[in-house]
Amino acid sequence: MSAVPVFLYHAVSDDPPSWLAPFTVSPRDFAEQLDMIIDGGLCVVPLGRFVTALLGGPALPPRCAVLTFDDGYEDFATTVAPLLDARGLPATLYVTTGAPNARRTASGAGPFPSVATLSWAQVRDLDAAGFEIGGHSRTHPQLDTLRRPALREEVTGCKRDLEDALGHPVSSFAYPHGYHSRSVRAEVRGAGWTSAAAIRGPSALSSPGDDPLQFARLMVRADTGRTRLGLWIRGQGAPVAPFGESLRTKGWRAYRRARALTGRPHRALPR
């Protein structure tokens, strides 16, 4: 199986809030990374093309990659989209539907405190410009700790929010924090999502044999240097999915679930 780098970005900014800084790439570094991907000979394909192959459709071209962006920060419209357009690169943006038009103050209103998020008008403009818009839940919770009614509201409600806003079906989902489980995947499938992006360990390469409901991604962080990115571009430096869930992952899920049941949930994001 050929490794497929599916790159995961969050924010692209020079001035992120402290909680988001580890997951933020500067615009200058982001532009250099895009050029490294192109110069490394990778063919960046739309996510839909990748998912079609995972579902048994036409094979992927050799040495391809996918670009994905989580959460729905405003910098995707102001910074990321122009840099992608200038290079003719497709990308998928997974939007947390409780974030658009949320009050943008340090009080923490909305899922992401003290950071500007896209408005619905911007989301529609990006959709019209050709970027695929996917779902990332309504409020960005740890889905694998939720009871069934709350889980369904996050997964199905997110799809309804996006389709109402965009006026057409959406099919691509990404698990907040990368957290999922068998029951979460079943809920995602039942809601009509045909693919779901995961995070297998810190990072992993995907492949044509990966599971479309938990395909692996490579998280590009503030500390992702040129050497590591270069390895990923060559299909090296990370495990290749599919592979089984580790005992550490299972234990971490059990711990978070226990915290949630006691009313003291593990906090993945600040208030």
TrEMBL record:
What InterPro entries does its record include?
A: Glyco_hydro/deAcase_b/a-brl (IPR011330), NODB_dom (IPR002509), Polysacch_Deacetylase (IPR051398)
CDD domains for this protein: CE4_NodB_like_5s_6s
Q: Where are the transmembrane segments?
A: none
Is-annotated flag, keyword Signal? yes
By its UniProt entry, which Gene3D superfamilies does this protein fall under? Glycoside hydrolase/deacetylase
Ranges for domain NodB homology come to 63-271
- Which compartment or compartments is the protein found in? Secreted
Alphabetic keyword roster: Signal
Question: Record keywords: Methyltransferase included?
Answer: no
Pfam families in the cross-refs: Polysacc_deac_1
Know the name of this protein?
Answer: NodB homology domain-containing protein
